[in-house]
Design brief:
Largest sheet: 6 strands, antiparallel
CATH class: Alpha Beta
Distance between the termini: 34 Å
Number of domains: 1
Order of helices and strands: HHEEEEEEEHHEEEEEEEE
GO cellular component, one term: cytosol
Number of helices: 4
CATH architecture: Alpha-Beta Complex
Catalytic activity: Release of N-terminal amino acids, preferentially methionine, from peptides and arylamides
Structural class: alpha+beta
Strand content: 15-25%
Family: Belongs to the peptidase M24A family. Methionine aminopeptidase type 1 subfamily.
InterPro entries: Creatinase/aminopeptidase-like, Pept_M24, Pept_M24_MAP, Pept_M24A_MAP1
CATH superfamily: Creatinase/methionine aminopeptidase superfamily
Number of strands: 15
Shape: globular
CATH topology: Creatine Amidinohydrolase
Oligomer: single chain
Enzyme class: hydrolase
Length: 258
Amino acid sequence: MIITNHHDLVNYQRAGALSTQILRELKLAVKPGILPIEIDRLAESLCRKNQVKPAFKGVYPANPYQYSTCISVNDVVVHGIPSQTEKLKAGDVIKVDFGLVYQGLYTDHCFTVAVGQFTPASKSLVTAARDAVAAAIPLAIAGNTTGDLGNRMQTIAQNNGFDVLKQYTGHSIGRTLHDPPAIPAFGEKKTGTLLEKNLVLCLEAQVVTGSDQVKVADDGWSVKTIDGGLSAMFEYMVIVGEKQPILLTPTLDWGMIV
């Protein structure tokens, strides 16, 4: 979506602020011994309280998603169905992906944290994933390309000894959850789609410790690393600017351990 008027700009800023507020509450709920489904139920409750709809629930009618969040643990990279049986334990690396619909406008963003404690390996992975996506944000200016963003994310991930998934990408967003263009977390500079001022983007990267090959679990949603390696994911929403972007979901300074 390209924002064309002040009304939509203000509403998107409000949507981003509310979505960030709810995501923060979900982060505070992450602790050893909690079931992921409990975090999901909290998200649903907070959406009701704020009179907004969960963005993910019901997407893809052929296999409609039934939850308000995607909660992906350890080798589950993305689209994890919140478990009703496996409690979080110390050392788990958990990704919480959430979005809402406010005044017809969609949000979509994600954080990764370690539960209770990092290992040296998991801390390095999560830090690299956050830094990779954060470093792409300043490049979301008119005249740059999707390849510029992807190249920045891929370079930082690989310079730290990790890789990025190629099968899943960031995207534009607006009155639907996924709009074109796609924003891969890899690519060559000055290639891809030219960024236009006021285009709303979800910048994301799924960063993995080993192979970048994945498989979809039997539940039809959860995407797992094929080699069982750990994964981390961050996603931030921005509006493309003329000289600098507008950050809609300011979660860059969040701690990475709970």
